[in-house]
Specification:
Length: about 350
C-alpha cells in the first residue's frame, strides 16, 4: 500500500513538473507593464512610501474589478500597511488557493517592494489586455495577496529595523533605550528557543535592544508582525515568498535547524522549480546554510509554515542590497514575475500534493 501511494505521489509530482516546464517559457519583452519606466535615469528611483501609496490607489481605481487595496494595520509612526489582493470576484473570499508575496521586512532592502509593485501592474494590465493564459488562470483560479512594504517606517528611515521605541531588551525600562526591532526575528516560531540554546543560535542570552538583530521584548510585539499574523490567520494561503536582498539564494523552513519539515519534498520541489526560473541557489536541508548564516529564530517563514502550513520561502534577490542600474531592477522584477506565475499554477495542486505526501 505504501509503495503504491508513494508511486502515485511520484506520478503527481512529475505531472506538476510538466506543467512547470510550460511555464518556464520566457515572457516576451513586449509584455512589460505599460507603466514601467524602462528609460529612467540612473540611479534607479525606488518608490517612497508615499509614491507606493499613490500608485496603489491609482491602480486600484483603474482596475477595481480584479484589484482591492486595504490597510491591515498601522506602524508606530502611523503609516498604513497596504495589502493588495488580485483575483476575479476580488471582494469575495473564494474557495481558491492563496499566494502571499511580501517585501521589505527590512526597510533597507528595497528591491522586493519594486518586485511586488511591478507584478501588480503587470497582472492588472495583462489581464485587461487578455493576452496571456497564465495571467488569466492566475487571476481566475487563485487569490494573490501582496504586502509590498511590511516595514514602511524602516523604508523611510532607511533602516533594517522598524522605528518603534524600545524600553530595554525586555521592554521593562521606564525610559526609551533605543529604536527598532528586526521584524524578521519577531515572529513567534520558535522565538523562545534562544533562551534555551543561546550558544546554538549565536545569540547572547540578553540581546541588546540596540542590536541590528534585536528580536523585540516578546513574539509579535510589533505592529507590523502582528498585522501579518492577523491577516494570515484568516486567509487561505498555500505558497508564499518574502523578499529580502541580497545574495541570489532561496531558503525555506526550518530556518532555525537543519532538520527537515514533514513537507520537505514539496519545499524542495517548488524550490527547485523557482531556482530553474531565477537561477538562484536553493539551500536544501543539510546544506551548510546554518554554519554560514546561523539559524534564524522568529522568521516569517517558520511561523507561516508551522501555524498555517504555508510552503514559504525567503528569496534573497540580486547581487547587492540596492542595485542602482534600472536594467538590473527591471530584470529582477521580470524574472520574479515568472516565478509568481509559476507559484499561482502550482498553488492549484499543492493541497492535493500535500495530502498525498502526508498519507504516503
Ligand atoms: Zn532581509
Amino acid at each position: 500500500m505504501k509503495n503504491t501511494a508513494l508511486l502515485s505521489h511520484k506520478r503527481l509530482l512529475s505531472a506538476v513538473c510538466c506543467i512547470a516546464f510550460f511555464l518556464l517559457a520566457p515572457l516576451s519583452s513586449a509584455l512589460i507593464p505599460q507603466t514601467f519606466n524602462t528609460v529612467s535615469f540612473e540611479p534607479y528611483h525606488y518608490h517612497t512610501y508615499q509614491e507606493l501609496t499613490d500608485e496603489l490607489h491609482s491602480l486600484q481605481e483603474n482596475y477595481s474589478d480584479i484589484m482591492s487595496l486595504s490597510s491591515i494595520g498601522k506602524t508606530y509612526e502611523g503609516r498604513d500597511l497596504w495589502m493588495v489582493k488580485l483575483s476575479d470576484n476580488v471582494n469575495q473570499e473564494e474557495n481558491e488557493p492563496g499566494v502571499l508575496l511580501m517585501g521589505a521586512h527590512h526597510g533597507d532592502e528595497r528591491p522586493g517592494i519594486e518586485i511586488c509593485l511591478f507584478f501588480i501592474r503587470y497582472m492588472v494590465e495583462q489581464y485587461q489586455n487578455n493576452s496571456l493564459p497564465e495571467v488569466r488562470s492566475a487571476i481566475n483560479s487563485t487569490q494573490i495577496y501582496l504586502i509590498p512594504m511590511v516595514n514602511p517606517d524602516g523604508v523611510e528611515a532607511d533602516s533594517r529595523k522598524n522605528c518603534a521605541p524600545n524600553h530595554g531588551p525586555f521592554g521593562r525600562s521606564a525610559t526609551i533605550t533605543s529604536y527598532g526591532v528586526n521584524l524578521n526575528r519577531n515572529y513567534g516560531d520558535p522565538w523562545y528557543l534562544a533562551y534555551i540554546f543561546p550558544v546554538s543560535y549565536n545569540l547572547p542570552f540578553i540581546l541588546p535592544d540596540s542590536s541590528f538583530n534585536y528580536r523585540g521584548p516578546y513574539p509579535f510585539s510589533e505592529n507590523e508582525t502582528k498585522a501579518v499574523k492577523n491577516f494570515a490567520e484568516v486567509h487561505n494561503i498555500s505558497l508564499s515568498i518574502s523578499y529580502h536582498s541580497y545574495g541570489e539564494f532561496i531558503i525555506y523552513p526550518w530556518m532555525h535547524t537543519t532538520k527537515q519539515t514533514p513537507d520537505e519534498p514539496l519545499f524542495r520541489s517548488v524550490g527547485e522549480n523557482i531556482s530553474l526560473i531565477n537561477h538562484y541557489y536553493l539551500f536544501v536541508k543539510k546544506d551548510h546554510v546554518f554554519q554560514r548564516f546561523g539559524g534564524t529564530l522568529g522568521s516569517s517563514e517558520n511561523w507561516l509554515y508551522r501555524a498555517r502550513g504555508v510552503i514559504s520561502y525567503t528569496i534573497e534577490v540580486g547581487q547587492e542590497r540596492r542595485p542602482s542600474d534600472p536594467q538590473v531592477v527591471y530584470d529582477l522584477c521580470m524574472t520574479q514575475t515568472t516565478v509568481h506565475l509559476y507559484l499561482c499554477q502550482r498553488a492549484l495542486t499543492i493541497g492535493v500534493e500535500k495530502a498525498a505526501l502526508n498519507h504516503s
